[in-house]
């Protein structure tokens, strides 16, 4: 049995203080992430930090299954808005001006609860008014998770006009909801339980023109 060399394992696991750079518009560059999904998800929380100056639509976090290509999708349709898709259904949050940072980077946390259908969105630690969708639904556990592109089939059918150009870092996913205190901890890379995708111990694969670089932001 072939074993993965230790240096390769380390290269593909510890990204604290680093970012994925998507340097140019392309329909091919993306990162495949591999969360620990043993069963369907009745609760989902995702946090990430990104820097981007695009004014057109782009995908931030795309999880697709055979049943639903937008099983869990965080998507920015235009400036001042963020959309969350669960099971192919969409809600759009208006992001008030003034929730950005002096660096132009944005930290986003999105949570969804099956029992109530309630979706929460936090932008730089500030909660937006809650919305609801797909009450009673469960997000499938046999899907493909991609950064940098929006999937129309699992792992493919990318649209260059929805591609991400910029930098993404501090990506986390949990199978539970986040409290306000936990969102604050996540903003500062705090350790939270129930993590199924951990930036500090990440399993991933880069495709085409994606570069891993040290972050130019303060490292928490």
UniProtKB/TrEMBL annotation:
One of its GO terms (molecular function) is complement component C1q complex binding. GO terms for biological process: acute-phase response; innate immune response. SMART domains: PTX (SM00159). The keyword Disulfide bond applies. Residues 16-218 form the Pentraxin (PTX) domain. One of its GO terms (cellular component) is extracellular space. Gene3D superfamilies: 2.60.120.200. Binds 2 calcium ions per subunit. It is found in: Secreted. Residues 1-17 form the signal peptide. It holds the Pfam family Pentaxin. Its cofactor is Ca(2+). InterPro entries: ConA-like_dom_sf (IPR013320), Pentaxin_CS (IPR030476), Pentraxin_domain (IPR051005), PTX_dom (IPR001759). The keyword Oxidoreductase does not apply. Keywords: Acute phase, Calcium, Disulfide bond, Metal-binding, Secreted, Signal. Its main location: secreted. Belongs to the pentraxin family. Homopentamer. Pentaxin (or pentraxin) have a discoid arrangement of 5 non-covalently bound subunits. PANTHER family: C-REACTIVE PROTEIN, C-REACTIVE PROTEIN-RELATED. This is Pentraxin family member. It comes from Gopherus agassizii (Agassiz's desert tortoise).
